[in-house]
Amino acid sequence: MADERIRDSEGTRNTVLCAAERLFAEQGFAATSMRDISQLSGVSHPLIHHHFGSKNDLYAAVKRRLVEDYARRFPNAAKTANRPLNIRAEMRRLMKYIGGNPMMLRLAARTRLEGDHQAWPGEPAVLDMLTRRITLSQKRGLVRRDVSPEHLSIMLMGLVYFWLERHEVLADRFGSRINDSDYLRQAIAILERGIEPRDKPKEVVS
What we know:
- By secondary structure, the chain is mostly helical.
- The protein folds into 2 domains: 1-53, Homeodomain-like (Arc Repressor Mutant, subunit A, Orthogonal Bundle); 65-195, Orthogonal Bundle (Tetracycline Repressor, domain 2).
- The protein is 72% helix and 0% strand.
- It has 11 helices and no strands.
- Helix 2 packs across helix 8 and helix 7 (87-99) runs antiparallel to helix 11.
- The chain is globular, with a radius of gyration of 21 Å.
- The termini are far apart.
């Protein structure tokens, strides 16, 4: 079995990352040991060290995989840094991606509880991509020049993240008046209208 895992290096890494992701999200970094990860994954302690090094290195690898999975799931979107920003498409992708990764939300909450405020590996690249697309949109007159590309990038991710993290609590407060699709539609509408150039010609209603 050990020889087979050595040959299947990628499969072994994936098995360890899945186990580590679950344990870090459920127990936190401090409460999770390499031995815990070894027991859950079925991969020996020395082999985990061989592939990942320290627990800190493994933790970083878990975060990196979660962030970089966006590019794997949406390869065309990840390659469009040189195209103008499409807020509607971008927010829908973010809602689908983050909403489909409950462990990512749990792990993010754990990192905050443990005082870990460092950017996740790969996260700056995602923000840089959004910033470049917004800047290009401004050059083409599609987005107001007085809007900060950096701030707008953060808002795009923040509006989606906050809703997904808190939607159960908010649903208890507001009931059926709000849901995922209605919230996303409203958020998109507010952002689209808010970033339109002030001198944009008004559409003629026939």
